[in-house]
Amino acid sequence: MANHMFLLSSLVILAAMNGIHAVEYVVTENTENSTGGVRFINDIGVEYSKQTLISATEFILGIFQQNNPVDRKEVQKVTLVIENTDGVAYAENGEIHVNANYIGNYSGDVKREFTGVLYHEMTHIWQWNGNGQTPGGLIEGIADFVRLKADYAPSHWVQPGQGDDWDQGYDVTARFLDYCNCLRNGFVAELNKKMRSEYSADFFVELLGKTVDQLWTEYKAKYRNEES
């Protein structure tokens, strides 16, 4: 009996150490048979969407090096809503909303594009934002960095070295973060960790020894020199 209790206690401790927890994933399709809704059902599907949410979470937690649950946001449920709206997609309050009209009008590999969008939006569910202080361009850049590392970057993205400013956001900032991550493996994970409760541009100095403006200048020069 004592051995049984010891084994049970050990399993509970091991589960806590390994971060075993359940996140509920729900997919809701509210398109009333719109063109995009029909294409979603036929070319993507609810089951694939749910599995992608799970795969994206696992990938993101790996990128952020958050093996310990205490390092993560407390997320108990993620709901994906496919609906007729504007734009492409957005995430808020544990929900990801994707525009069925975008799905219906997309001319390329819609399943791959949809997957990339989910990886981007799921990153917003899990990433820290400096308690609202982090620049929006950096927030979006980290989400696209995850999409880039998952190999779901679309062909229309800028190439490395392109862009006007480091916090321009999305693909521009994602390419810059990839450069920074090459300078220090795990840089994005460490940056995200620092942004748990606040944000400072000094985080770049602390992690890479240079200001973000210095890093941006060197990044631009690197690819300018490679082109010449």
Descriptive terms for the model:
single chain; 228 residues; alpha/beta; four-stranded mixed β-sheet; 10 helices; 10% strand; globular
Can you lay out the helices and strands and say which pair or pack?
Elements: H1 2-18, E1 24-30, H2 35-44, H3 46-63, E2 77-83, E3 89-92, E4 95-99, H4 100-105, H5 110-126, H6 136-149, H7 170-183, H8 187-194, H9 202-208, H10 212-227
Parallel strand pairs: 1-2, 2-4
Antiparallel strand pairs: 3-4
Helix pairs in contact: 3-5, 5-6, 6-7, 8-9
Description:
With 228 residues, the chain is an alpha/beta fold. 56% of the residues lie in helices and 10% in strands. It is built from ten helices and four strands, in the order H-E-H-H-E-E-E-H-H-H-H-H-H-H. It has a four-stranded mixed beta sheet with strand order 1-2-4-3. Helix 3 (46-63) packs across helix 5 (110-126).
Order of helices and strands: HEHHEEEHHHHHHH
Shape: globular
User: Largest beta sheet: what is the strand line-up?
Assistant: 1-2-4-3
Please state the CA-atom Rg, rounded to the nearest Å: 20 Å
- Overall structural class, as computed from helix and strand content, comes to alpha/beta
Q: Segments where pLDDT lies below 50 for 5+ residues?
A: 1-20
The quaternary structure here is single chain
Could you give a quick summary of the protein structure above?
With 228 residues, the protein is α/β, with parallel strands linked by helices.
